[in-house]
Amino acid sequence: MKHAVLDRSFPIDPAGLLPPVTSDNAPFWNGLARGRLMLQQCPSCRKLRYPVAPVCAVCGSTEIAWAEMSGRGKVFSWVRYHRSYLPEFADRLPYVVALVELDEGVRLFGCLVDREPDPFIDQPVKLVIERWPNGRCVASFTSAGVEQ
Amino acid sequence: MRAAAAITGAGSTGVGSHAERTSISLASEAVSLALADAGLSRREIDGLIVHIGAPRGADYDETAALLGLKVRFASQTWSHGRFGATVIQHAAMAVSCGLADRVLCLGAYKNSNLGLIGSRASWGFEESLRFGGGPHGETPHAGFNGPVASAAFAARRYFHKYGTSPDKLAAVPLAFRKHAMLNSEARIRKPLTRDDYLGAAFIVEPLRLLDCSVVVDGAVALIVTSAERAKDAPSRPVFLLGAQGVHAGPEEFIFGQPGLGVGQASVFDWESPGANQTVYRMAGLAPADVDVLQVYDAFSPLVLLSLERLGFCGAGEAVDFVQDGRIELGGEIPVNTSGGMLSEGHLNGWSQMMEIVRQLRHQAGARQVPDAKVAQWGTALGDSIIFGNSDV
After folding, report:
1. B219: nearest Cα among B11, B358, B63
2. Whole-number pLDDT of residue B17
3. Domain for residue A148, yes or no?
4. Is the CB of residue A73 less than 8 Å away from at least one CB of chain B?
5. pLDDT at residue B1, as a whole number
6. Is residue A147 part of a domain?
7. Chain B residues touching residue A111 (CB < 8 angstroms)
8. Residue-level pLDDT at B113
9. Which of B127, B141, B212 to mutate to test the interface with A (most CBs of A within 10 A)?
10. Which residues of chain B have pLDDT under 70?
11. Structural domain count, chain A
12. Contacts (Cβ under 8 Å, ≥6 apart) of B222
């Protein structure tokens, strides 16, 4: 399932906020750049593995495979920043960060890009892929266009 | 480990903003005080464990060299607050196993020159770039940095799960401020009202300014030896009666609670293990036997999580438990009697360890818990130590 990719601008270069791309996590980042949310899935027991890990915490398998997620989920918890910790985000204050539980069960921290309404726990949301100035893409979320 | 080891010397610089001093100078002051308290000379110290090294404090090698310590057992933990009690546990193990006879445990570092914790300029930013989240779940590319947000995510979920009002959290900082007002060393001693708390700005909603601890500089040194040797000590020894370590793994989130589901942890109806956990079994004690409790209160919700994890109340009950003075001096279980990190100052638990020594020696002045015999340290992450002023 291909998701929309939106360009995002920043007051200063935000490249320093991105985790390095490694041989372990490259399929995740490459997936976002192609408009898809890919997570590791254990080929043995089907358990999703997040963060990217060399071994399945359930069955112990060291085999690695990747699977595409729907991008649908709900807000598990959320916070609203009123104070600037990162100058890259200073122009967005106050802004919301959500812990989103995907329909598939994994939880991701991501920006909730909507300025309103207030989020709430169990609010249905969907993935929005944001493309940063250096071309890297990150997973954010929105409630817009999702049946509430 | 029960009563195998004891603290025989304790020294503290007090907490404050020592912008003009180096961390090694703070360390030196605390170590000299601890040595004098224990009646030991420098050359009698043969073990050293440093909690927080560079860039906040001096690393173990620098500490040993600059303080003139010649040790045969040295160790150092990660530069995060969570391993303070682990340092003391390791010291007890070292003296029990014969790796050293007298181990100096040191928490000595500065925060005042590191900028806003969680900002790009502050120590440890690189750790937040771990894939899947930093040591507190930090995800900078989502605008999530700083441990306060981690506590806020957990608090929001906690209040949702148990159906309580976040405003009731006020009882925690209010209680500890009352204690700080009885402590001349506390960083903030101004009276605090519920209106002050509710009127303070949100930092990371739902947490407000007064839910956040006060950043300080300082040093505390504790000398751990065997219980046998401790009996000859000039100052009253404080015995380690029980301990349990930091819990870790996929089911643990630094500021969460089992079953709360923050990060990737499972969601389930967790029940507090009460007295059925290692620290109590080892000590042969239960929460009801504890006279003074010190918990890791970097952010006020951690106090709720700690009280439940340590079995002072059941899951979801802490927000009511902390009301009506129950955690204040004179209450059911006095908590953070020197003001805690929220008011005395955040020295990652070291000033609270000093407070435990003072309480068990009955040297805590106006904030002394009458006839305190048993004191406990604990965190939301499950680590704990129970101390007693006798070994029985």
Report:
1. B11
2. 82
3. no
4. no
5. 63
6. no
7. 142-143
8. 76
9. B141
10. 1, 392
11. 1
12. B7, B9, B10, B34, B88, B91, B104, B105, B353, B354, B357
- Helix, strand, or coil here: B10? strand
Domains in chain B: boundaries: 5-114+214-388
Strand order across the A38-41 sheet:
A48-49, A38-41, A65-68
Residue B188 tokens read as 């903030």
Subunit contact A97:B144, Cβ cutoff 8 A: yes
Residue B159's alpha-carbon distances to A83, A148, B314, B323, in angstroms, are 22, 22, 15, 16
| Token pair listed for B350 | 């070291």
Domain hosting residue A33, numbered range: 5-13+21-142
CB neighbours of residue A22 within 10 Å: 11
Which among A82, A110, A121 has CB closest to B160?
A121
Domain B5-114+214-388: give its CATH architecture. Answer: 3-Layer(aba) Sandwich (3.40)
The structure tokens listed for A13 are 């270069």
CA distance B85 to chain A (A): 28
Comparing alpha-carbon positions, the chain A residue that sits nearest to B156 is A77
pTM (predicted TM-score): 0.97
Terminal CA-to-CA distance of chain A, rounded, Å?
Answer: 21
Question: What is the rounded distance in angstroms from the CA atom of residue B245 to the CA atom of residue B232?
Answer: 29
Encode pLDDT of A70-120 as tens digits.
Answer: 999 999 999 999 998 999 999 999 999 999 999 999 999 999 999 888 999
Instruction: Evaluate whether ipTM surpasses 0.95.
Output: yes
The secondary element (H helix, E strand) that includes residue A79 is: strand A72-81
Q: What is the pLDDT of residue B355?
A: 98
